[in-house]
Amino acid sequence: MRYFSYVIRDPSRPADNNCIDTVSEDDIRRTYWPDWYSNMCEKYEQSYVDENYSFEDCLEDWIVVHQAWESKD
User: Fold this and answer.
1) Higher model confidence: residue 19 or residue 69?
2) How far apart are CA 73 and CA 71, in angstroms?
3) Contacts of 53 (CB under 8 A, 6+ apart)
4) Could you tell me the pTM of the whole model?
5) How far is CA 73 from CA 3, 5, 41, 69, in A?
6) What is the pLDDT of residues 24-44, one digit of tens each?
7) How many CB atoms lie within 10 A of CB 44?
8) Burial group, residue 35, by CB count within 10 angstroms (0-12, 13-18, 19+)
9) At 72, phi and psi to the nearest 5?
10) Burial class of residue 61, CB neighbours in 10 A (0-12, 13-18, 19+)
């Protein structure tokens, strides 16, 4: 199981006092994948998405959007 960390940006806190959250790959699959997949199917045809994209593509997108990194701790 892989884990990913990212900074929770809170405008009410100073930039140097934000929190870091760590989530599992399964958490991302459960919370991010359904919307990501649905949006990809709207943009492309479902058959194209099924043939050309996987959860790894979704995960890469999540990492970029959240400016996340894989946690080794």
Assistant:
1) 69
2) 6
3) 40
4) 0.85
5) 9, 10, 35, 12
6) 999 999 999 999 999 999 999
7) 14
8) exposed
9) -100, 0
10) middle
**Based on C-alpha coordinates, what's the Rg of the chain?**
14
- Return the structure tokens found at 22: 């760590």
Instruction: Return the pLDDT at 15.
Output: 65
Q: Which domain does 49 fall in, by range?
A: 3-71
Strand order through the sheet with 19-24: 19-24, 3-8, 69-71
- Domain tally, the chain: 1
- For the chain, the maximum distance between any two Cα atoms, rounded to a whole number of angstroms, is 46
Q: What is the number of other CB atoms lying within 10 angstroms of the CB of residue 27? A: 13
Token code pair at residue 10: 């809170």
Using CA atoms, how far apart are residues 52 and 66, in angstroms rounded to an integer? 23
